[in-house]
Amino acid sequence: MINVAILGYGTVGSGVFKIINENNSHISRRAGDDVKVKYVLDLRDFPGDPVEDVLVHDVDIIMNDDEVDVVVEVMGGVEPAYTFVKKALERGKSACTSNKELVAKHGAELLEIARENNVNFFFEASVGGGIPIIRPLIECLTVDHVEQIQGIMNGTTNYILTKMEDEGADFDTVLKDAQDKGYAERNPEADIEGYDACRKIAILTSLAYEKQVDFEDIYTEGITKITTADFDYMKKIGATIKLLGTSRKVDGVTYSMVAPFVLYSDNPLYNVKDVFNAILVKGDMLGEVMFYGKGAGSLPTASAVVSDVVDAVKRQGYTARVFWSDVKRTLGGVDAFKTPYFVRVKPQAGEDIASLKNRVDNVFGKVEYISLDSKPEEIAFITDVISGSEYDKAAEGFDVVSRIRVSK
């Protein structure tokens, strides 16, 4: 018998409880042992809910019970999740989590504690919800050097951008719609400013390149400045705009960022719509492979957590090898990151469009112009591949309306 304790009975925790109970025979057969939820920890009471039979309010009941084999942390936030998971690992219990904040900040440390105690720390659901990406990255792509990771890692922002593109609605209108439908929180800052995606790309970059990447070091830009006019230009060139988390190695330097990017139709991420997520990994031998599905939600995320529970049961007595050192990896600066830019500019006082174009040609060199009948008062263009510092220097003296990087 394998006893599981669930820390937190919110959206994901209730999903984990439901899946283990309703699919118990299937899960137990795959795990090779009977799997049972012995405890669920939460400060609240749930009258009439089946969880009442196993509900506890004191975490020490779980920590002091030697019969608990696996602890599932789905509380969210860094504390008290970190303290609880660390204590569980130190007491010889494997731990599984969907908590991206916890993993991004303490992943390397918790993996080391798990190794020291001959147990496992798994976190498949911390990136991409129900999409399998962590295990494929560390187990299935072991012969490849990862050259690039590029992904739509936040369903809320992808929903907003999809609606802006398809319906021509402005950002504020679509954000309210997303909140009304439960896709966005009342305080949507973590999503729309890119912080959620930042933690996820930090985890993937740490795993791909085997050293700690602090999310605080990753340049992060949200979607609040994207307008419907930007999408009107995209339709002229057969492109779209997505918020991407991206990492890549160039000449031995690792670059990582979260920002809106222009994508053309030849990019596999181009057609990823609404609340769906997708992560594109490019290996030096395999080439490109994409992982696609629902990146959030109770049951999709809980499904990934329970899969980790099954894996923890199957690996009892030894620790899975995960290469993630706590030695910090220094990232290349955003000023050195090279990419084309989509730019919209307005004439200065007393300057006509022809003069503005002449100035763009003199400063930016070779560009691709995009005209839009509804915007005769400005010009738009796509630059050649330039670094961030080269763009900043060239843009000085221009009245820039919009600036979006273009995915190569």
What does this structure look like?
This protein has 408 residues and is an alpha/beta fold. The chain contains 14 helices and 20 strands. The strands form four sheets. Strands 7, 9, 10, 11, 12, 13, 16, 17, 18 and 20 form a ten-stranded mixed beta sheet that branches. A hairpin with a 2-residue loop joins strand 10 (239-250) and strand 11 (253-264). Helix 5 (100-116) packs parallel to helix 10 (195-209) and helix 7 packs across helix 8 (171-180). It starts with a strand and ends with a strand. The model has no long low-confidence stretch (mean pLDDT 95).
| Number of β-strand runs | 20
Fraction in beta strands: 25-35%
- Secondary-structure-based class equals alpha/beta
Q: Point out poorly predicted stretches.
A: none
N-C termini distance: 52 Å
Fraction in helix: 25-40%
Determine the number of helices (DSSP H or I, runs of at least 4 residues).
Answer: 14
The whole-number mean of residue pLDDT values reads: 95
The main sheet comes to: 10 strands, mixed
- Given the C-alpha coordinates, what overall shape results? elongated
| Alpha-carbon Rg, integer | 24 Å
